[in-house]
Amino acid sequence: MFFDDHPEFVETSGVASAQARLNMRHLAMIEENAEVIRGRRVVDIASHDGRWSFAALKAGAAHVTGIEGRRHLVENARKTFAAKGIPDASYRMICGDVHQKLFNPKIQAEVVMCLGFLYHTARYVELMAGIASTGAEYVIIDTRVIQDVEGPLIQVRTEGTIADALAIKDRYAQGKRVISAVPSEEALVVMLDAIGFEVDHRTDWHALIAQHPGVGPVNAYARGERVTFRARRVA
Questions:
Q1: What is the C-alpha to C-alpha distance for residues 169 and 189, in angstroms, rounded to an integer?
Q2: What pTM was estimated for this model as a whole?
Q3: E strand residue ranges, 161-216
Q4: 95-150, pLDDT tens digit by residue?
């Protein structure tokens, strides 16, 4: 499986880096979307150590722009890409606040990947507008969601900013904490609709797990606490 051939990404960050889990997420987030990634320009939101930017390039993306708020993770991505011989012209790694960087007119893409980020921010209005501003035709989303609720709801919380697995300290931070939120899946559908997108594919995690028994634990997906889906621009 993909990360069996690229174990470097188990070492460049300790966040959710279990190889088996990465392999299963690759099947859902990259392989199931390969037809829309191939040949297209991609923006990777909260690109971390570049693992999914790299996977997109290997899936045939024409170019990937990664946006990550922690400089050491940006540097780790650049080092790994260089070591693997990825041409400089095929990617760009930017360090900064994704909510602001997305509005740079130079950042244009046909596909936006928002993987493991939505529950580390509450700035959804900025984020959705930024995604729309890239001109993307598709958005691939993988996120934690709140369950057992009816309606488009968001659960607000506070979150630390110290560890790489947590939110980024931004201009709204109060000391070392920020306000973040976990949306319901219905809330995401409403927000995507507001910027002209509709969901056109959902990963069937129960089927995927059944097809790959013994690969490794993906308990949050099995319980429906995390979801993976793709939305297409319709307006």
A1: 27
A2: 0.96
A3: 177-183, 197-202
A4: 999 999 999 999 999 999 999 999 999 999 999 999 999 999 999 999 999 999 99
* Domain ranges, ordered by start, for the chain: 2-147+184-233
CA gap 166, 211 in Å, rounded? 32
Residues comprising the chain, all counted: 235
Tokens of 7: 């174990």
Residue 150 CB partners (closer than 8 Å, separation 6+): none
Are the beta carbons of 77 and 49 closer than 8 angstroms? yes
Residue 179 near residue 172 (C-beta atoms within 8 A): yes
Cβ atoms of residues 122 and 95 within 8 Å: no
* Rounded Cα distance, 169 and 175, in Å: 9
Q: Which CATH number fits domain 2-147+184-233: 3.40.50.150, 3.10.300.10, 3.40.50.510, 1.10.10.10?
A: 3.40.50.150
* Residue indicated by tokens 């995690």: 205
Bridge partners (DSSP) listed for residue 155:
182
User: What's the token pair of residue 75?
Assistant: 């540097």
Going by pLDDT thresholds of 50, 70 and 90, the confidence category of residue 18 is: confident
